[in-house]
Amino acid sequence: MTTSSTGGATMPPGPRLPRPLQAILLAKYRHRWLPRLQRRYGDTFSLRPAVGGDMVVITDPDQVSRLFTGSPEVFHAGEGNAVLRPLVGAESVLMLDEERHLRMRRMLLPAFGSTAIKGYHGMFAEIAEDEVARWRPDRPFGLYDRMEELTMEVILRVVFGVSDEARLAPLRGLMKKLARAGLLEMIGWSVPALERFGPWRRYRRTQDAVDQLLYAEIADRRAAPDTPERRDVLSRMMIASENGGGLSDVELRDQLITLVMAGFDTTSAALAWTFHELAHRPAQLARAREAAARDDDKYLEAVVKETLRLRPVLPQLGRRLTGPATVGDRVLPAGVSVIAAMTLIHTSPRHHDAPADFRPERFLGTAPATGSWIPFGGGVRRCPGATFATLESITVLKAALLRYDLHPEHDRPETARIRNVMLVPSRGTRVVVRPRG
Question: In the chain, which end has fewer C-beta atoms inside a 10 angstrom radius, N or C?
């Protein structure tokens, strides 16, 4: 993709449905609607929803690669995430573009580098063992709920670095309420006047209470003499500096909320899908259990990656154009959002052999073609917590598979449903576990 100063900007074909209807279909049924549009209009098509502005959907990995490596002055990801600004804050790394984004990314990376990740592993293992020990054998339960409990504990103890139960308890409850924002709350973010009423007022109060606790934690951490020696993410972010300057309290707050939304919701859903796929596939489950017993993290990592291919939690990623740009054979105008449809890219038979099959082996020894596997994005916007989330998932898988045999409550696999901007298991990954002999 290239930038262009020429006129003649044109949009690819797309549905002529009313804009409000397109917005509803995109918000609630995108995982069913977009495949139909691809079959009708081809690999590139346009949408005109009432919310979010005009969009061009792309499904070709080459175009996706160029989208991720296009000029950051023209291809803005922060503007494309604008709907999240009332939640994560204006200084969130998700909201920033160009040099401000690069600076924030540089400040965050030490907390997610290889040395830091190794330091988190012990805490991951402790939290995972504590969680799976609570599971009640021979009684059906929803693993998605349990993964939410686990990933929230990781956020509070590994990311925030809170160990005092007196502080953990209020944070735990409030953070869950904050992270479980749905379509109703998102409407309120777009219409601030609604904050005076009903559910939007309650959500605003939750945000205020969370902010009060976070700023208190930040103040205490700044005053603590042992902060430079601590291994949690907040402490590492706090001591990071560039040109003699560190992150402000507001910047720290916004990154913490961002990490909650990115590390709680998405990781818990991804883990739920991983257990779902293994529970419904005895052969792959047996091999994953053998890998866990051998400490074969490479195979377990392949299981996680294959789940993210077949069951992407986030169905799309995008950039908003600040000026005209060439996408494929068209020049698109400024203001258009270019969307990489992950659900279509990951299941394309042109880019993945037998795409409907669950084959972790496809990630052993070879990497997928550039732009054909994008659960963590790409380019300078690639998720800095990708390795963190992957190691967390491997550790949880290992703890569960070594302790239990896993069975689905029902033989029929669960379908995906939309929860806020994510695709999650429709019944919450209902399973039965039995202790291994």
Answer: C
* CA-based radius of gyration for the chain: 22
- The two beta strands, 422-425 and 75-76, are unpaired
Distance (Å) of CA 434 to CA 126, 166, 303: 21, 34, 22
Is-above-0.90 flag for pTM?
Answer: yes
3-state secondary structure of 370: coil
Residue 176 neighbours by CB distance under 10 Å:
15
Query: Which 8-state DSSP code applies to residue 413?
Result: P
Do strands 430-435 and 2-3 pair parallel, antiparallel, or not at all (unpaired)?
A: unpaired
pLDDT in tens, 104-122: 999 999 999 989 999 999 9
d(CA 68, CA 378): 6
Q: Where are the beta strands (DSSP E) in 139-223?
A: 141-142
Residue in this structure with the two tokens 């503007």, named with its chain if needed: 79
Encode pLDDT of 245-269 as tens digits.
899 999 999 999 999 888 888 999 9
The β-bridge relationship of strands 337-341 and 55-58 is parallel
Token pair of 42 as six digits: 């081809």
The pairs formed by 109-118 with CB atoms below 8 angstroms and a separation of 24 or more are 109/384, 110/236, 110/240, 111/233, 111/236, 111/237, 111/240, 112/233, 112/384, 112/385, 112/387, 112/388, 114/387, 116/231, 116/233, 116/236, 117/387, 117/388, 117/391
